[in-house]
Specification:
The chain contains 14 helices and no strands. By secondary structure, it is mainly alpha-helical. The longest helix has 26 residues. Helix 2 runs antiparallel to helix 10. The radius of gyration is 41 Å and the shape is elongated.
């Protein structure tokens, strides 16, 4: 008879992720080094400079209008069909699915959920930071501009910064961030930079974004990648929490499959050192002892027992309202009759011995 546990597909996935070690020894979590802090500060300064330049309608806004009037999609119409497909590499839905599939395979191979959780944290930061600036500034795109030379701010738009550009930087840059070797990290960094630059330039070619939108989108995505090491402790806690929840659900499932024991009035007497009390109580005919389970105990047991293992209902027992007494406190029990046959000779001898002797 086989006693192997049959695991579901999800349980097999978690069982593989639970294998030790959880990740190869050569994988190191990126740290917030001094070089990274300098890059983060420089990128943040560039980000703020772009915002100020647009708010003050500086030379950058004039450059936006000049390129818009140039209309690149009319200068090179033969590139339009190809660039329509290339810009998809910056759309959040398709890119998130492709990158999540790759990181899911890496999670399976490296026995850790860190790649997928890191991607989720990066996309969450992207939605919060870029989305809030988009809605706060409300800039209109080139196709919807109404006043020549204006920054088109606070007009109900949502294109500043460029979401396509920022998303391309984050989703493709996360592959370089999670690379396992230095060479792989450098190669993927170049690839992600080329993809994000191409996507940003394509949006300008198609006329869907200003140049300043693309510049702010590049810096917004780069800020998220540079700040990710600060969120590594949160990622580690999230991974541990997922495994803890999985273990709790597994224990609950196993407890639900096991029938709960039936609790009866004999349970205290069946403990260690209490069997002799049970024998004496039954022999003495103590009404406080009844082998049938009580109604309350039967209800508690049936509440934790599956329907397939629920025992048939039994009649309610008659229990005395007093506690069980020890032998020294019980009332002596007089037997109704003796099972042995009467012996007339022994009875006569006992009565003659008990009779007082008289002198004659």
């Amino acid at each position: 008879m086989r006693t192997d546990q049959i695991l579901t597909r999800l349980e097999r996935v978690f069982a593989r992720l639970d294998r030790e070690p959880e990740r190869p020894a050569h994988l190191q979590t990126p740290q917030m080094s001094r070089h990274r802090v300098v890059l983060l500060g420089s990128t943040l300064a560039f980000y703020l400079a772009i915002v100020v330049a647009v708010l003050t309608t500086s030379w950058l806004v004039r450059l936006d209008w000049q390129i818009m009037f140039f209309r690149p999609y009319e200068q090179w119409p033969q590139l339009h069909a190809f660039l329509d497909y290339l810009v998809v590499l910056g759309q959040r839905g398709p890119t998130a699915v492709m990158v999540a599939a790759w990181l899911g395979w890496r999670s399976w191979r490296q026995h850790t959920l860190r790649p997928l959780i890191t991607l989720g944290v990066a996309l969450l930061l992207l939605n919060i930071t870029v989305g809030s600036v988009k809605l706060g500034l409300g800039r209109l795109g080139p196709h919807y501009a109404t006043e020549i030379g204006s920054a088109e701010l606070f007009a109900g738009g949502d294109i500043f910064p460029s979401g396509h550009t920022a998303n391309a930087v984050v989703t493709w840059g996360i592959l370089a961030y999670l690379a396992s070797t230095v060479v792989t990290r450098r190669v993927l960094s170049v690839v992600s930079a080329v993809v994000s630059l191409s996507v940003g330039a394509t949006t300008v070619y198609l006329g869907t974004h200003w140049v300043s939108d693309v510049l702010l989108g590049w810096s917004a995505g780069l800020l998220i990648l540079l700040a990710l090491p600060w969120f590594e402790p949160l990622i580690a806690r999230a991974e541990a929490y997922v495994f803890d929840v999985r273990e709790l659900l597994r224990r609950r499932a196993e407890t639900g499959r096991m029938p709960a024991p039936v609790v009866s009035a004999l349970t205290p007497l069946l403990s260690a050192g209490g069997k002799w009390q049970l024998r004496r109580a039954v022999a003495a005919g103590d009404p406080a002892v009844d082998p049938a389970p009580t109604a309350a105990a039967h209800a508690a047991a049936s509440a934790h027992t599956p329907a397939a293992h629920t025992p048939a209902p039994r009649p309610a027992p008659l229990l005395a309202g007093r506690p069980h007494l020890i032998r020294s406190e019980r009332t002596p029990v007089t037997p109704v009759g003796s099972r042995r046959p009467a012996h007339t000779e022994r009875a006569a001898a006992r009565s003659a011995a008990a009779r007082p002797a008289t002198g004659g």
